Amino acid sequence: MYFISTLITITLAALAGITLASPAGTGATPVSEISTPPAPEKVIPTIPANIVATEDGTCGIFKNGTTCKDTDHGACCSHGGFCGNGPSFCLEGCQPKFGDCGKAAMGSAAPAAQLAVLPI
Fold first, then answer.
1. Rounded Cα distance, 61 and 110, in Å
2. Rounded distance, CA 54 to CA 71, Å?
3. Tens digit of pLDDT for each residue in 14-73?
4. DSSP string for the chain
5. Are 83 and 73 in contact, with CB atoms under 8 Å apart?
6. Which CATH superfamily is domain 39-110 in?
7. What is the pLDDT of residues 95-112, one digit of tens each?
8. List the disulfide bonds (predicted).
9. Measured in whole angstroms, how far is the alpha carbon of residue 47 from the centre of its chain?
10. CA–CA separation, 106 vs 92, rounded Å?
């Protein structure tokens, strides 16, 4: 029971940024002496010099660097690396180096039936 109580106390103190001394005679390392591991380095992929059109509808920096432009998969490249024409592809997170982005791009591959003007 002492161990669980001590563990909870140390954990709460660490979260609150409080320095605790180890109980006398326990040989435990004080919280203030425990080092945190360094943050992992971020890997930033490079954009290929020769960007080619996707064949399978995947695109972007993490999907072989292919583009959606001039394909039947949609003009926009989503944050997740897929081609399409909806808001989830063309707006927030859109990858402009691998496809068109913005509201104007969402209608770039719309079927003609959706653009027809109907009489009133």
1. 25
2. 7
3. 555 555 555 666 666 666 666 777 877 776 666 677 889 999 999 998 888 999 998 999
4. -HHHHHHHHHHHHHHHT---PPPTTS-PPPGGGPPPPPPPPPP-PPPPSS--B-SSSB-STTTTT-B-TTSTT-SEE-TTSBEESSHHHHSTT--GGGS--SHHHHTTT--HHHHPPPP-
5. yes
6. Endochitinase-like (3.30.60.10)
7. 999 999 999 888 744 444
8. 76-90
9. 17
10. 12
> What is the distance between the alpha carbons of residues 8 and 3, in angstroms, rounded to a whole number?
9
95: which 2 tokens? 């990858």
Dist CA 14 CA 16 (whole Å): 5
Token digits of residue 11: 């954990």
36 compared with 118, residue with greater pLDDT: 36
Q: With contact defined as beta carbons under 8 Å apart, do 69 and 53 qualify? A: yes
Nearest to 14 by CA among 34, 37, 28: 34
